[in-house]
Amino acid sequence: MNLKNIATTAALLLMLLVSSCSTPRNIAYMQNDQYGLQESILNMNKIKIQPQDQVSIIVSCKEPELATLFNLKQPAGNPSGNNQRMGYTVDDAGDIFFPMLGQVHIAGLTRNEISKKISDLLIKGQWISDPIVTVEFINLHFSVLGEVGAPGSYSITNDKITLLEGLALAGDLTMHGEREITVIREQGGERIKYNVDLRSKDLYDSPVYYLQQNDIIYVRPDKTIARQAADNPNNWKSIGLWISIASFISSMAVLIFK
Length: 258
Hints:
This protein is an alpha+beta fold. 26% of the residues lie in helices and 21% in strands. It has six helices and ten strands; from the N terminus they run αβαβββαβββαβββαα. The protein has helices spanning 3-21, 64-67, 111-124, 163-169, 223-228, 239-256, and strands at residues 54-60, 88-89, 95-98, 102-105, 132-137, 141-146, 152-155, 180-187, 190-197, 216-219. The strands form three sheets. Strands 7-6-10-8-9 form a five-stranded mixed β-sheet, covered by helices on one side. It has a three-stranded antiparallel β-sheet with strand order 2-1-5. A hairpin with a 3-residue loop joins strand 3 (95-98) and strand 4 (102-105). Helix 1 packs antiparallel against helix 6 (239-256). The longest helix is centred in the first third of the chain and has 19 residues, at 3-21.
């Protein structure tokens, strides 16, 4: 093999190497999932109230005047037409101070459980015989950071929200987002970090598949983005550098052996 062929072969090998390095990795979610099968949902976790959460609790009944005794009043000077919901902030002990009922412990309860507890207390105390108690979340949210279409904080308004729904709200992962993501959860005075592989159906069994308030989802960038963000643009691992080397060798071979 002459020098011209050697140079050409070397250039081709380098180009093949670059091509293999830039081949897209598997990015599809739940790759080992099975379709058409009915699966039991075993770990459906609804949102439960925690200290420092805020909730709106509105009592209504057949006698509106009686119900007003158990509803928060708008503060003096509040502009008319302001639709801001009045709410209770759960203290560190998990309690709220409810009109006429006093301290009521609601931490660890879902919206429906809070509604039932307040209704039972009103009936038991013979305050109202037919109460309707509506509970809504006010400040509950989760955050999504990293390689997603729309990073930010998103409000929780439903009784449950899944990890996939949370990512969808944030515009889904970009093509350069690692499919193994991190969810940071703070609960009961502890911080726990979970890794979840979106490519595996095992994500359904993850403790963080159902999000909780204040969860943080972090999507790491892949190696391509990491290299682009490196301080040294001439890093020897740079794909662009390999392309330049291959092009240079090919050009020199043509000039020398033309």
